[in-house]
């Protein structure tokens, strides 16, 4: 089989370190009957070790050459390959109780995380390898310099834990950044939700667009509609000082006042 050269347009960096691979598989803890989907299997560094524990694995691969290689390497009854851009895949097609895993291309990691959030009701857990600084933003808490829109939006939907770092030397070609593995578990159905999730997202985006400004300025004309005492947030606070629950209260207060999102967003 000919050697595959990493394609920059797909953000390909192939995991090669056997020790790191074992550490990732151990963290995932795959069981034979799991309904697992691997995003971007590449040269199958994780695919083979996962299949050693699973009866069947689904994979989403955008690179047609790698998709063909996967089909030649693994029998169809063990591995089902969907040749597609993960950003355009409806993961709900794979069924319920999904376990999503993958070394995500760093150039599309944030939009892919948001895409996965749309099918979180179908997901049991997610184990992803991402750029370390992205993972640190995902799990950051209030008053942390890494806390931002990504933190709030993902923590609204998941319980997350950074598991461990992965050095550039674990890949071929080696990326210029350190990577990290994160575990994401969707929050239960009884979680606190915003009345209007679109408004919630727009509020968080507006608040962090000018994160150094006080909220009474960063929110523009929405600030005049906000019952600050009622929501328990100081108008002089900055976005990085407000937790997820605070943003939910703020969003619900605006929703109760009939904020016309199309006009204000």
TrEMBL record:
Principal subcellular localization: cytoplasm
Catalytic activities: adenosine(1518)/adenosine(1519) in 16S rRNA + 4 S-adenosyl-L-methionine = N(6)-dimethyladenosine(1518)/N(6)-dimethyladenosine(1519) in 16S rRNA + 4 S-adenosyl-L-homocysteine + 4 H(+)
One function term, GO molecular function aspect: 16S rRNA (adenine(1518)-N(6)/adenine(1519)-N(6))-dimethyltransferase activity
Domain spans labelled Ribosomal RNA adenine methylase transferase N-terminal: 20-188
Domain of life, per lineage: Bacteria
Xref: SMART domains: rADc
Keywords, in A-Z order: Cytoplasm, Methyltransferase, RNA-binding, rRNA processing, S-adenosyl-L-methionine, Transferase
Cell compartments where the protein resides: Cytoplasm
Enzyme class: transferase
The EC number(s) this enzyme carries: 2.1.1.182
Entry-linked InterPro entries: KsgA/Erm, rRNA_Ade_diMease-like_C, rRNA_Ade_Mease_Trfase_CS, rRNA_Ade_methylase_Trfase_N, rRNA_adenine_dimethylase, SAM-dependent_MTases_sf
Residues binding S-adenosyl-L-methionine: 13, 15, 40, 61, 85, 103
Gene3D superfamilies in UniProt: Ribosomal RNA adenine dimethylase-like, domain 2, Vaccinia Virus protein VP39
Family: Belongs to the class I-like SAM-binding methyltransferase superfamily. rRNA adenine N(6)-methyltransferase family. RsmA subfamily.
Its job: Specifically dimethylates two adjacent adenosines (A1518 and A1519) in the loop of a conserved hairpin near the 3'-end of 16S rRNA in the 30S particle. May play a critical role in biogenesis of 30S subunits.
Protein name: Ribosomal RNA small subunit methyltransferase A
Lineage: Bacteria, Pseudomonadati, Pseudomonadota, Betaproteobacteria, Burkholderiales
């Amino acid at each position: 089989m000919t050697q595959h050269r990493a394609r920059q347009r797909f953000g390909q960096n192939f995991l090669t370190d056997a020790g790191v691979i074992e550490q990732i598989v151990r963290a995932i803890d795959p069981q034979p009957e799991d309904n697992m989907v691997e995003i971007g299997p590449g040269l199958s560094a994780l695919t083979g070790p996962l299949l050693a524990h699973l009866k069947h694995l689904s994979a989403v691969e955008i690179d047609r050459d790698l998709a063909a290689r996967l089909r030649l390497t693994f029998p169809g009854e063990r591995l089902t390959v969907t040749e597609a851009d993960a950003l355009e895949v409806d993961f709900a097609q794979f069924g319920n109780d999904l376990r999503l895993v993958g070394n995500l291309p760093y150039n599309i990691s944030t939009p892919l995380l948001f895409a996965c959030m749309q099918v979180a009701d179908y997901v049991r857990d997610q184990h992803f390898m991402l750029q370390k600084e992205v993972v640190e933003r995902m799990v950051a808490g209030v008053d942390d310099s890494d806390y931002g829109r990504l933190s709030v939006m993902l923590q609204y939907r998941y319980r997350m834990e950074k598991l461990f770092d992965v050095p550039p030397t674990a890949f071929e070609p080696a990326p210029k950044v350190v990577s990290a593995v994160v575990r994401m578990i969707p929050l239960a159905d009884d979680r606190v939700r915003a009345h209007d999730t679109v408004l919630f997202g727009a509020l968080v985006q507006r608040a962090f667009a000018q994160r150094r400004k006080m909220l009474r300025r960063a929110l523009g004309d929405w600030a005049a509609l906000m019952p600050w005492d009622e929501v328990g947030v100081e108008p002089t606070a900055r976005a990085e000082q407000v937790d997820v629950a605070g943003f939910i209260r703020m969003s619900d207060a605006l929703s109760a006042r009939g904020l016309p999102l199309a006009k204000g967003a």
